[in-house]
Give the backbone structure.
Amino acid sequence: MSTLAHTMMTAARSADSGLASPGELDRYPYAEAPAVDRVGIPAWDGGDPELGRVGRRAAGSRGRGLHGQLVQQLGQMIVSGDLGADRPLVPEEIGQRFEVSRTVVRESLRVLEAKGLVSARPNVGTRVRPVSDWNLLDPDIIEWRAFGPQRDNQRRELSELRWTIEPLAARLAAGHGREDVQQRLADMVEIMGHAMAQGDALTFSRADSEFHSLLIQVAGNRMLEHLSGIVSAALQVSGGPVTGCDRPNETSLAHHGRICEALAAGDGAAAETAMRQLLTVHPEVERVVPAPREH
């Protein structure tokens, strides 16, 4: 085993499974949001009491303290539909319901506004925006949708988006021939192999995510590069339409290896084909995005 593989596997085993390393998307069970009055101001009372104890809980799964936890809770509630479009969000009521300061509420609402989930206007206040205004490529929104009522649509859309992005990225990456990148990709495949043999799904997932992100980043297309975070988010979402990356197995590992070989040979067509095969290991994906016809 290479030094890199040993280091990565050791780090993954010693890490708290509830925490994600920098740049990664956390995985967490979707929290049910409290019921709300469908007309007028949200009814914060009567919901899950755990959601009202944000101030008493330890740092959330993202390690961002009260601010991060409140963003998480409100984001989930908006995306789940419990806080519907054009609903008013009164900072004082939010602070009371979640037992946090006005500063925490204000900063959390600013984050949600940057994601397109809410809008704040003078004399109008803060209101939930319609889905058409959301930044659906934001990793947090991807995650919230993937673990909420829209989970099936979100996972299908992610699979379709990967079909659009990754085969092209593989073809483009084959023309760059950088030895350091080739070695790094090969290291990730080696790590995935060792992790699969040891039943270490966490390490497999992290190496897989790095493999795909790196591949997109070296494609030589800056617009594609900005989409690498979306692919990383997709790889952290399990269930729904799945690809060869979602469940560690020999077939998936072999396809990753073939992508590496094609890249090393500078064969863009072979790299693209191998990526398409990887994304259609499971039949659910073929029903989402048909493979191209052979001419």
Remarks:
- The first strand starts at residue 88 and ends at 89.
